[in-house]
Amino acid sequence: MCILSGRFETEAVAELKKLFKLHTDYHDIVLDLKDVSMVDREVMRFLARCESDGLKLEHCAPYIREWMEREKD
To answer: In sequence order, which residues have a C-beta less than 8 Å from that of residue 42 and are 6 or more positions away?
Structure first.
């Protein structure tokens, strides 16, 4: 499990991608977003892609979840 907090911005995506490359299956990865206060568009898109690949998002703020759903349409 990876716990994130504060602002989750594009720069952090590269670091997470490096960590994720260590796993062969996204189904083994859980991101806890409980303390994430803000994300930018690129992060939101990254989270949506990760989730569609099988990664689990826990405690995802409603505004992030809604934004991800709107982007799918």
So the answer is: 10, 13
pTM: 0.83
Beta bridge pairs of residue 36: 6
Closest listed residue to residue 31, CA positions, set 41, 11, 53: 53
Cα 61 from Cα 18, distance rounded (Å): 24
The whole-angstrom separation of Cα 23 and Cα 20 is: 5
- Condensed to tens digits (0 to 9), the pLDDT of residues 26-72 reads 788 899 999 998 999 999 999 999 999 899 999 999 999 999 999 87
Q: Which alpha helices (DSSP H) does the chain contain, by range?
A: 10-20, 41-52, 62-72
